């Protein structure tokens, strides 16, 4: 008994077949921006446009190597900053014991340290947002 011949290629779609075509003109800048978004998202151009138009916003694809390299650099920089702060604190304690620590130096250090703490908290918040975004 012979099997029926199967047509080569992709099986026909029974539902959800896309039959409508749209066209859009873009400026050179718009087109370049579209290509950037497409590259970052990892989607083909039509899927990217479809998601943007229909409200399924594109979750940007993240290059894991680039992300880990950037996070590693940030961690190293934070480590260096922490070392500098420790050195400054040790030096300030030495000057304080000698009675040579000026109040305006302490005030300026406190101002700068508060800025550092604010920046570090913002960085932590951004990293948490990134991690939540990646979990989706």
Gap between N and C termini: 51 Å
Give me the number of helical elements. 4
Low-confidence stretches: none
Order of helices and strands: HHHH
Helix/strand class: mainly alpha
Instruction: Please bin the fraction of helical residues.
Output: 55-70%
Main beta-sheet strand count, sense and barrel state: none
Structural overview:
The protein has 136 residues and is an all-alpha fold. The protein has 2 domains: 26-61, no CATH class; 64-135. It has helices at residues 28-41, 45-53, 64-97, 103-135. The radius of gyration is 28 Å and the shape is elongated. The model has no long low-confidence stretch (mean pLDDT 86).
Salient structural properties:
about 140 residues, mainly alpha, 2 domains
Brief summary:
By secondary structure, the protein is mainly alpha-helical.
Spell out the blueprint of helices and strands:
Elements: H1 28-41, H2 45-53, H3 64-97, H4 103-135
């Amino acid at each position: 008994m012979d099997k029926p011949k199967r047509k080569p290629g992709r099986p026909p779609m029974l539902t959800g077949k896309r039959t409508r075509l749209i066209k859009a003109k873009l400026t050179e800048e718009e087109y370049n921006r579209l290509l950037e978004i497409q590259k970052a998202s990892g989607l083909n151009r039509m899927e990217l446009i479809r998601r943007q138009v229909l409200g399924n916003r594109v979750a940007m694809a993240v290059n894991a190597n680039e992300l880990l390299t950037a996070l590693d650099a940030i961690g190293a920089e934070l480590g260096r900053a922490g070392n500098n702060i420790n050195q400054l604190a040790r030096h300030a304690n030495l000057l304080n014991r000698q009675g040579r620590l000026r109040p305006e130096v302490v005030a300026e250090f406190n101002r700068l340290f508060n800025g550092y703490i604010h920046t570090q908290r913002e960085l932590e918040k951004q990293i948490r947002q990134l991690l939540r975004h990646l979990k989706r």
